[in-house]
Amino acid sequence: MSLADTEREIEALLFAAAGPLSEADLVKRLPEGADVPAALATLAERYRGRGVELARVAERWRFQTAQDLAWLMTDEREEPRRLSRAAQETLAIIAYHQPVTRAEIESVRGVQASRGTLDVLLELGLVRMRGRRRTPGRPVTYGTTDAFLEHYGLASLADMPGAAEMRVAGLLNLDLPADFAVPDPNAISLDEDPLDDGDAPEFHTDYLGKE
Q1: In sequence order, what are the residues at sequence separation of 6 or more whose Cβ sits closer than 8 angstroms to the Cβ of residue 40?
Q2: Which one, out of 40, 91, 112, 178, has a CA that is 20 to 30 A from the CA of 81?
Q3: Where are the CATH 1.10.10.10 domain residues in the chain?
């Protein structure tokens, strides 16, 4: 086989490899008689000075960004905050029962809801204060946001997994009524009033692992 063919094959192998490959690794994958050392030398020369170079590291070969361009690869980004089990359960309850009050969340979960848990979900923009229930005390109701749909890759709430799937995933250990229907997060229910201007949330965030 021609040296050009060997070069192309090695180029394809190194490009797709999860890590560096040794000459022995390449020989095993290439047709018998392939001149691996010559092809590697030619490829290394061809990529010299390019944005991506063929480098030899610990007797293995790999493609890597040119050293002088490493600064382009620097990326500042926020690490996503991982939700605690309590926050995941609270979010699932809100998603499947909205509009829902804090007392109703506690009733479904069977434990008292930490103010910090709800604050985390509000701060992350996964839930929002929807309105106020028309009951004594006028408690605030909560619902999900567009950010919730984006985070979980859902086109709409209708695309949420069914209750059975959520239980299998360990995210929903709840007894939903037989006539349960996915709620519309934008619709104000009959027993709910819109929020007033002074109802913006004030965060009192605890750590994520707290109940």
Answers
A1: 10, 23, 26, 54, 61
A2: 112
A3: 3-69, 85-194
- Pair 96, 108: CB distance under 8 Å: no
Amino acid letter, 96: Y
- Give the CA diameter of the chain: 85
Return d(Cα 37, Cα 143) in angstroms, integer.
63
Q: How many other β-carbons are positioned within 10 Å of the β-carbon of residue 209?
A: 13
Question: Which CATH architecture group holds 85-194?
Answer: Orthogonal Bundle (1.10)
Sequential pLDDT tens for the chain (211 residues):
699 999 999 999 999 998 899 999 999 999 999 999 999 999 999 999 999 999 888 788 999 999 898 888 776 666 566 788 888 888 988 888 888 888 888 887 777 666 688 888 999 999 999 888 888 888 989 999 988 888 877 777 777 776 566 556 554 545 554 544 555 555 556 667 777 765 555 444 333 333 3
How are beta strands 140-144 and 127-133 bridged, if at all?
antiparallel
Inter-residue contact 83 to 208 (CB < 8 Å) = yes
CB burial of 121-135 (b: ≥16 within 10 Å; e: otherwise) equals: bbebebbbbbbbbee
Q: What is the predicted pLDDT for the residue at 156?
A: 75
CA-nearest of 76, 128, 87 to 111 is: 87
The fold for domain 3-69 equals: Arc Repressor Mutant, subunit A (1.10.10)
CB atoms within 10 A of CB 35: 15
Report how far residue 10's alpha carbon sits from residue 46's, in angstroms, rounded to the nearest whole number.
13
